[in-house]
Amino acid sequence: MAQKHILVVDDSKTVRNLVAFIIKKEGFKISTAEDGLDGLEKLYSNPDISLIVCDVNMPRMDGFTFIKTVREQEMYRDLPIIVLSTEGQEKDIHKALGLGANLYMVKPAQPEKLVRNIKMLLG
């Protein structure tokens, strides 16, 4: 089985590195992006991306706009997206899920829970 490729989109370098480290240990290939625009560029240039982990609060393009843009494209309709955000309010969770995110996790998320959710979404 080919190595699954995960895109981590977060404006915090610390969070990107931590999430990448956690996921990489599980044998996944990782790409990172610092905001939604960077995330779209990485997504379009890596056709093998299997799942996205993204934040909502980011400069240039936030996570909500990023999710909406990804979901508007036929080829990414079924690409699993996990939101990992400090925003734990119901309105943010509903908005992200309404735009097409598969899961919403509030930071700090337990590493094993994040990995379990990634594996679940990847089947």
From TrEMBL:
Domain of life: Bacteria
Keyword annotations from UniProtKB, A to Z: Phosphoprotein
Residues recorded as bearing 4-aspartylphosphate in the entry: 55
A Pfam family reported for this protein in Swiss-Prot or TrEMBL: Response_reg
InterPro entries to which the protein is assigned, alphabetical: Bact_response_regulator, CheY-like_superfamily, Sig_transdc_resp-reg_receiver
GO annotation (BP), single: phosphorelay signal transduction system
Protein's UniProt keywords contain Phosphoprotein: yes
Stretches assigned to the Response regulatory domain: 5-122
The name this protein goes by in its record: Two-component system, chemotaxis family, response regulator CheY
Species the sequence originates in: Desulfonauticus submarinus
Lineage: Bacteria, Pseudomonadati, Thermodesulfobacteriota, Desulfovibrionia, Desulfovibrionales
